[in-house]
């Protein structure tokens, strides 16, 4: 049960491995396909088989009419390719097409990775998955007496069952403080509402990209990078990470998940990781960000081909954009996460 899937009209070609359904193969390939339950209940993942054969993975509750079946309609979550196939399926190309969703996930792990950051890993229910675009945020909490907080999803939409979050220690944020005071543990139930925000990959121009992330601004950037890697169309990806931790700390402490970024650098010929050693804190000014931007971009001969994704506090982003604008790029080439501003 494997084969090449040509998706029309978008023109993406993806190889399905093992027992991957057509939907899983598409999501792993970085596509933004419509779906909801992933198990044959909702009918949202309907596609049309234009050529080739399918292998049924499961019986499904959603009923297709005889006429739909006759026209080749099938559920992408419940069928795998049996050899090479051509499937007609539309991708979500605008976040407004993704409805606000609500689900209750279960905490798989809560892990402190440095003095200021907790990694929160949720599992979604079998019958309900969160559809979102890489870079978007969700609201967490509100159940079992928990406060709510809005945080960017750090995992790739291609992983249907997992939602990852990087929760910073923010004294003024009730949800962050609940996480840091052990209010959540393995098995805790946590409400998830969303997605929100317009920070996402510009799929029309993902060939040469520079990501600049301050502290837990790495979370939405990580989600987008994983999508870019899945798409396999990028030619040149650079990740700059700036940390608020003091100069005296070790490299790993300055940039949590430092090894994760290094593994991308080691494994991918088109990915370069740049851990930045200069310090920027929440109270640093635009000038400091300008200096850092000047420094990190001076190594590039020509920035005209690059798109920029910047996530950090307002002064950080303003300073970065100030320097980047000096290269006379169109405004649309610079993207920032407005929803993330207060969440870092
Ligand atoms: S039937 Fe719900 S995603 Fe396939």
Can you describe what's shown?
This protein is an alpha/beta fold and 344 residues long. The chain has three domains: 3-88, Beta-grasp domain (Ubiquitin-like (UB roll)); 96-196, Elongation Factor Tu (Ef-tu), domain 3 (Beta Barrel); 203-336, 3-Layer(aba) Sandwich (Rossmann fold). It contains eight helices and 18 strands. The protein has a six-stranded antiparallel beta sheet. The longest helix is centred in the middle third of the chain and has 14 residues, at 218-231. The protein is globular, with a radius of gyration of 21 Å. The model has no long low-confidence stretch (mean pLDDT 89). Bound molecules: FE2/S2 (inorganic) cluster. FE2/S2 (inorganic) cluster (FES) binds at residues 35-38, 40-45, 62, 75, 77.
Pick out its properties.
single chain, 344 residues, alpha/beta, Ubiquitin-like (UB roll), Rossmann fold, 6-stranded antiparallel sheet, 8 helices, globular, binds FE2/S2 (inorganic) cluster
């Amino acid at each position: 049960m494997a084969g090449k899937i040509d998706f029309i009209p978008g023109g993406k070609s993806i190889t399905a491995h093992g027992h991957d359904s057509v939907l899983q193969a598409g999501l792993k390939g970085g596509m933004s396909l419509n779906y909801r339950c992933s198990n044959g209940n909702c009918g949202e993942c309907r596609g049309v088989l234009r050529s080739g054969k399918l292998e049924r993975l499961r019986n499904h509750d959603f009923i297709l009419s005889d006429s739909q079946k006759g026209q080749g309609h099938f559920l992408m979550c419940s069928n795998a390719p049996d050899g090479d196939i051509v499937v007609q399926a539309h991708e979500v190309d605008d976040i407004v097409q993704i409805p606000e969703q609500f689900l209750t996930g279960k905490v798989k792990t809560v892990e402190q990775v440095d003095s200021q950051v907790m990694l929160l890993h949720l599992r979604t229910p079998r019958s309900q998955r969160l559809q979102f675009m890489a870079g978007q945020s969700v609201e967490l909490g509100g159940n079992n007496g928990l406060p709510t907080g809005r945080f960017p999803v750090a995992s790739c939409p291609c992983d249907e069952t997992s939602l990852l979050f990087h929760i910073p220690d923010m004294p003024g944020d009730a949800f962050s403080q609940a996480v840091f005071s052990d209010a959540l543990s393995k098995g805790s139930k946590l409400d998830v509402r969303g997605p929100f925000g317009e920070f996402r990959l510009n799929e029309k121009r993902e060939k040469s990209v520079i990501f600049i992330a301050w502290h837990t601004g790495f979370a939405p950037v990580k989600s987008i990078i994983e999508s870019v890697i899945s798409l396999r169309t990028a030619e040149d990806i650079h990740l700059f990470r700036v940390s608020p931790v003091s100069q005296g700390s070790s490299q790993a402490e300055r940039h949590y998940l430092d090894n994760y970024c290094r593994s991308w650098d080691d494994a991918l010929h088109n990915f370069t990781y740049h851990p930045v050693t200069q310090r920027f804190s929440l109270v640093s000014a635009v000038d400091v960000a300008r200096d850092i931007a000047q420094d990190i971009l001076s190594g590039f001969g020509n920035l005209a081909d690059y798109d920029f994704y910047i996530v950090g506090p307002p002064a950080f982003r303003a300073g970065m954009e100030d320097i980047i604008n000096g290269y006379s790029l169109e405004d649309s080439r610079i993207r920032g996460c407005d929803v993330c501003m207060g969440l870092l």
